[in-house]
Amino acid sequence: MPEDAMSEVAADVSRCSWAGADPLYRHYHDSEWGRPVADDTRLFEKICLEGFQSGLSWITVLRKRERFREVFFGFDIPRVAMMGDADIDRLLQDAGIIRHRGKIVSTINNASRALEVKKEFGSLATYFWRFEPRPEDRPVLVTRDVVHAMPQTEASKAMSKDLRKRGFTFVGPTTCYAFMQAMGLVNDHFEDCFCRAEVETQRAAFTRPGT
After folding, report:
1. Which of 42, 41, 52 has the alpha carbon at shortest distance from 78?
2. Which of 18, 24, 118, 188 is deepest in the core (most CB within 10 A)?
3. Residues of the chain with pLDDT under 70
């Protein structure tokens, strides 16, 4: 669904408080965040954009996401892996994205590392979903205080450690946990959020890659 097709869900329903009042952010919360993803391109895009978010807010990245998709060829992994110095110089002049040399270089590097992971595991999805935490390792209640108290978890630390061992960059444990929350490896919608039950149903029906 295009980002200009804002959520039709009523504004007064109960949501996670971080969704705020911005229509773009609410649409992202209502239709994407926490819903399980098995598509390699979306997973690669997200791990890269989480890296760009480092030190910033997600809404800053979200507002620039369409331009990121344009300049990184739809986050097509082989195509991004082929980008070089001329592309880096060009992107550093593009005000439509976050112009941070290290994060741009990281995205290109991570594309090459992602190709290696796909060769080993068959897909990025199979690799990433190996880090889904066990239900017994998750909090019983998901409230604002609980979520804010766990910016990283043992599972995200394990993912971060393994990614860095494989040569990925800008993949610290907090970044990895934000990735896990967004891609549905965990359901961190608050208990009173209207999305929580929907996401639980989707996760229950979701076939884990590699199983």
Report:
1. 41
2. 188
3. 1-11, 138-150
Residue 7 in domain: no
User: Of the residues 33, 58, 127, 177, which is catalytic?
Assistant: 58
**CATH number of the domain to which 55 belongs:** 1.10.340.30
CA 81 to CA 12: how far, in whole Å?
A: 44
28 labelled catalytic: yes
Our answer to whether residue 33 is catalytic in this structure is: no
**What's the domain range around 87?**
17-205
- Is 129 noted as a catalytic residue in this protein? no
pLDDT of residue 137: 72
Q: Which of 28, 33, 129, 177 is catalytic?
A: 28
Q: What is the pLDDT of residue 168?
A: 98
**Residue 3, domain member (yes or no):** no
Q: Which of 25, 33, 45, 50 is catalytic?
A: 50
